[in-house]
Amino acid sequence: MSDLHRMVQHRSALRWVEARTLASDRAFPRHSHEQLGVGVMLSGAHRSWSGVGHVEAHAGDMIMVNPGEMHDGMALGGRRREWRMLYFDPAVVTRFVEAEGVAGIEIVRPAVSDRLLATRFAELFTDERPDRLLLEENLLRLIMRISRCHGLRPPPREASSPVKKALPRIDGDPTLPIRLAELAELARTSRFQLLRGFVREVGATPRANLVQRRVHIARRLLADGRPIVEAAIDAGFADQSHMTRAFVRQFGVTPGRYVAALA
């Protein structure tokens, strides 16, 4: 079976923005990102699971994902698809929109056809180096287009009491070891019921959720200049190899290549 996969981590003029180009026929398991993700499908087609169900994106479509929102992805027809992504620090995005009188951004649909938004995206995803003022103007146009046209959503369904009781233990310090029995005791339910609750309401098992938290911690440590081995240990992984496998599953690139792109 073919496995065509290429991921390029581009240099970014802004520390709070990451840029990537991917071409792959791989299927990605359910995962989430800490950032607000905005991208465009360049070729091929893609199917993914999201909080609103299964969605498809075709060449020319814009694709978006909320910070922390679970999603997966697979190529339609098993053929390689290519797409570009910009990932924004959600805290900075929030400051942008709050200055315009908007409470925040939460994406309604993971895939949309929006020519103007695609144009705004292309203005940012360029090899040219615009001056700082032009860069900020283009960023604001992109973010406000998303906020005004794709940023409304009904209140999310609250998690059940068992899951809400267990999540703070994971979120509090993901670097610490944890057992399913401990989470079940905190949630006052059985381990099996808790496992089912996580999959249904969070979109991933407790362990998958924990590993993703650790990957996000490792990414921040690497961005701050921490050596890969130290980042792996400080993020809670047993060793560098464990972190590398999780990092590749999450971002499609090794920690070493990620660091090189940020240099």
Quick structural summary:
This protein is α+β, with helices and mostly antiparallel strands and 263 residues long. Strands 1-2-9-4-7-10 form a six-stranded antiparallel sheet. A four-stranded antiparallel sheet has the order 3-8-5-6. It is built from ten helices and ten strands.
Question: What can you see in these coordinates?
Answer:
This protein is of the alpha+beta class. The chain has helices spanning 90-98, 115-124, 132-150, 161-172, 180-187, 191-201, 206-223, 228-234, 240-251, 255-262; strands at residues 5-10, 17-24, 28-31, 36-43, 45-50, 53-58, 62-65, 71-75, 81-88, 111-112. A hairpin with a 6-residue loop joins strand 1 and strand 2. Helix 4 (161-172) crosses helix 5 (180-187) and helix 8 (228-234) crosses helix 9. The longest helix is centred in the middle third of the chain and has 19 residues, at 132-150. The radius of gyration is 19 Å and the shape is globular.
